[in-house]
Amino acid sequence: MKHTELIKKLNLEQKCALLSGETVFTTRDFSEKGIPAITLSDGPNGVRKQAGAADHLGLNPSVPATCFPTSATVANSWDPALGEAIGEALGEEAAAQEVAVLLGPGLNIKRSPLCGRNFEYFSEDPFLSGKMAAGYVRGIQKNGIAACPKHFAANSQELRRMASDSILDERTLRELYLTGFEIVVKEAKPRTIMSSYNLINGTYANENEHLLKDILRRDWGFDGAVVTDWGGSNDHALGVKNGSTLEMPFPGGDAIRELKAAVEHGKISEADVDARLDELLELVLTTHAAVEKAPRTFDAEAHHALARRAAAESVVLLQNEGGLLPLKAGERVAVVGDFARTPRYQGAGSSAVNSIKVDSVLEQLAESGLQSVGFAPGFDRQGRPDDARKAEAVALARKADTVLLFLGLDEIKESEGIDRSDMKLAVNQLDLLEAISQVNPNVVVVLSAGASLETPWLKNCRALVYGALGGQAGAGAMLDVLTGKVCPSGKLAETWANAYHETPARAHFGGEGRTVEYRESLYVGYRYHQTAGIPAAFPFGYGLSYTSFEYRDLKAGPAGVTLTVTNTGSVAGAEIVQLYVAKPDAKIFRPAQELKGFARVFLNPGESREVTIPLDDKAFRYWNVRTNHWEVEGGCYELRVGASCEDIRLRAVITVEGTAAPNPYEGKDLLHYQTAEVRKITDAEFEALLGRPIPESKIKIDRNMTLGELSHGRSPLGWAASAVLGRLLRKSMENGKPDLNILFQYNMPLRALAKMTNGAVSMGMVDGIVMEAQGFWIIGLLRVAYEAIKNVILNAQLEKRLHQAERTKENPA
Ligand code: BGC
Questions:
Q1: What confidence tens digit (pLDDT) does each residue in 356-410 have?
Q2: Which domains does the chain have, with CATH numbers?
Q3: Is there a catalytic annotation at residue 229?
Q4: Which of 125, 229, 235, 278 is catalytic?
Q5: The whole model's pTM is what?
Q6: Measuring from atom 6 of ligand 1, which residue has the nearest CA?
Q7: Among 224, 259, 578, 609, which one has the highest count of C-beta atoms within 10 angstroms of its own C-beta?
Q8: At CA 382, angle to CA 732 and CA 373, rounded to 5?
């Protein structure tokens, strides 16, 4: 322990008090003891520090900050160094605003294209996610503050996000859902990590000994602070025992009393509390010192320029028939689509930044060298049909050489707190596209969306450019790409399926009950499409360029590959070279191939470069559930080097020595895991994979019933509350603006009432509400009233004691 002396100066109650927040975004202040409070703030694509009343959903405005492209966008650059540069700028802005812990980046696996927060996450692939996240973390922490990679782990949907139980086998957990975190922890050493809201195989992530102690702390050597997601603590004492350091936001006296009682009754030991406190003190003292010495200003123009470069590097050119792009100087363009005037450049929720400024295509057009014949919004953003707007846009399109049509998802489609219901663009936008394509074939569709879409309408445009959610400077970046000032080089960090029903998690995403079965196991994204032979509209790693690249002279070995890449076209540009590992003769089922390395290479026309892509300890390993170890199947492996997962240009076969571990699946019938026919996986097969019966999914009336589920309870009050919430939710959807409060409350378990109300509600009161929902109407209400009075009295006494202890020690009589 590093802070033994300091810890000795605190009594048990004070120690317990330090292990939860004092306000929504600050830790507890004990400056008399030399322990200052520090501020934690979101988030991944810009600092969201709330100056006035703080809330964790971004409801109240925050201090203006640079809004960088979201992680889903920057992932398309496949450039961890760019991530690092963004991270450094984020760290600077954070420290300038006296923020000691920046709550990001988010690196959950995009299990389904419908997860409402996919725009905040990097990829469907753990290797790419981990490498990108490591870049961000290195950057953020450069000046001594802390990054907080989140949400650890297996947290890939918003429905019932605080109460859903992710059911998955250990191999899938390790190989797919944890490997990105492993990379970021080992390679970038984040000072904190955020545990996720959900349960994993029946135990909350935040109190999961296996996850936090065995894997994170023991196996990966993490010695920083684990921070709960906001309101994500269930049993605080168990959390502390099992490796969770700081409960956020401000649960009040109840959580302190709970922890203290747990020590006094022997549920946990004081040594557990001390161990966590030591981690907390290390975090608080080091990051506070870093913030103290950091400048209070930053170069907003330089950060805007970086945001623009990041957005430009991340643009993916998906289609370019007949080389319609780049546009020539002076080309007469019609600019159509509401997003050209009011960009969609970030997602909604806790990551939403109060941007310093926001560029729009319309404003930036003058500098682009293009000649505009006019602008028409073309459609109603909320999807309502509008024939007049459509007609105006079509008339405008007739007058131009080329139509720049800005389409995308509207605000409600991508938000924390709610998953998408489909992968479609709004019908009114597609009607407009069709109508325009009939009067002018030269249509360039520019897409703003933080997640993949179905594109059956591709035939109606000659070019398709995907800018994702490009941040505050995204508009200028997009024009740079459209005009050829920047050669597009982004490649998709997620598969774009032809249709949602062809995505692997479909049958077990979201769900009605408590559990979410990760039946598809390793077959997420391209791992599924390629193994099952289901073609994608745009495969993982795909992206076109204005130039072309040739790959040759592959030299390969277990330590990596070397090859020569030449820019054979006429403009300078970057190529993202991808290295996949395959074992066609594998005895142990595995995806057809997996990404294990990549390199981004910038080349002038005619230039060649020798590129080396190393392979590390993750290249050949698989998690063996029998030995409980990483093992390597010995024999031949194919190393495949390509421009996307489908466009493999060079291959080599190498021999790798194995670890001779027994086949963990010997004697088990896992036929559909062999073939990746995920829809045919039977209960028996999933149970064989899990190694235990499939847990029951039934909703129970307990502390973890969500407010939205109160309709399943036995209390008229609960039914009414759930009905009102449901109505408000539907209303906010109709308005087209996500109401984050309602979304949060709908998915919030009763227990979180005690965690999110600044101490006003205690767990005792929650238990009263549970009794009420169970049908004990009178006793339930009486219990709530009794516990409420008790809570007020105990809270007042506790706060007094905490400070009294202070005063007595300072002035002994
Ligand atoms: C989100 C986190 C965020 C936190 C604080 C939670 O609801 O899941 O990502 O960092 O709020 O705003």
A1: 999 999 999 999 999 999 999 999 998 999 999 999 999 999 999 999 999 999 9
A2: 4-65+78-293 (3.20.20.300), 301-517 (3.40.50.1700), 537-681 (2.60.40.10), 707-807 (no CATH)
A3: yes
A4: 229
A5: 0.97
A6: 230
A7: 259
A8: 155
